[in-house]
Amino acid sequence: MNMMTLWHISGWEFAALALAALLVGFSKTAVSGANTVSLAVFAAVLPARASTGVLLPLLIAGDTFAVLTYRRHAHWPTLWRLFPAVAAGVVAGTLFLARVGDGIVRVSIGVILLMMTGITLWRRRQEATEDVSTRTGRATAGAYGVLGGFTTMVANAGGPVMSMYLLSAGFRKMGFLGTSAFFFLIVNVAKIPFSAALGLIDTDSLLLDAALLVFVVPGAFLGRWAVHKINQRLFDRIVIVATVVGAVELLLT
């Protein structure tokens, strides 16, 4: 990455990144699905590989707000069961990023976003037709962890996988938010040395992060205010449609 690659963007492109950064904060404290829109926007405006490195510190900032908000509701036994498998997935994702070019990363992010959207839709259908106890035993924490680790390393897109696991395990709203907040804060911080070693995080990317961080903060506070008020069904539909549009755009360009 270099300064011209990251900073030679138009005003409209920066506005899109700013909105995506606001959605990062909002997703961490209210609706995790909004984050997939941010992934698509960053990968569309910036080089695909660079976008994952720029987005990571912003995600960590959002995770920090989420932990401060929901820290009392985390379920640590669940987290400890997931971490070993997630670590394996992160290593696999790092090896993948080290071997492929920007074009393949761009297509991979698009495919992952479509796959995560499909998982989300499948999960909602399962929720409507099955009891939690029926769904809990269908996949091990290891399988979810590896897939979550790989997708979060390659595209910062582990949210739907972990959401599916936590819901299938029977977590209620606050327990879900608290457990996922600590999970992503720990995992995203652990990804920093891998991303830095791949050249995805450097001085230039951090300067862009500094400019975008001011939009994450109000998004996080907006999420805290809206979490008990938002029309979840309508918002989720908007997020899903926007994610699909963004993923298709990545695949076609």
From TrEMBL:
Residue stretches spanning the membrane: 82-98, 104-122, 174-194, 206-227
CC per GO annotation: plasma membrane
Record's protein name: Probable membrane transporter protein
Keyword line: Cell membrane, Membrane, Transmembrane, Transmembrane helix, Transport
Topology versus the membrane: Multi-pass membrane protein
InterPro entries: TM_pro_TauE-like (IPR002781), TSUP (IPR052017)
Organism listed in the record: Streptomyces seoulensis
Any single Pfam family the record assigns to this protein: TauE
Family named by the database record: Belongs to the 4-toluene sulfonate uptake permease (TSUP) (TC 2.A.102) family.
Subcellular location: Cell membrane
Keyword Metal-binding attached: no
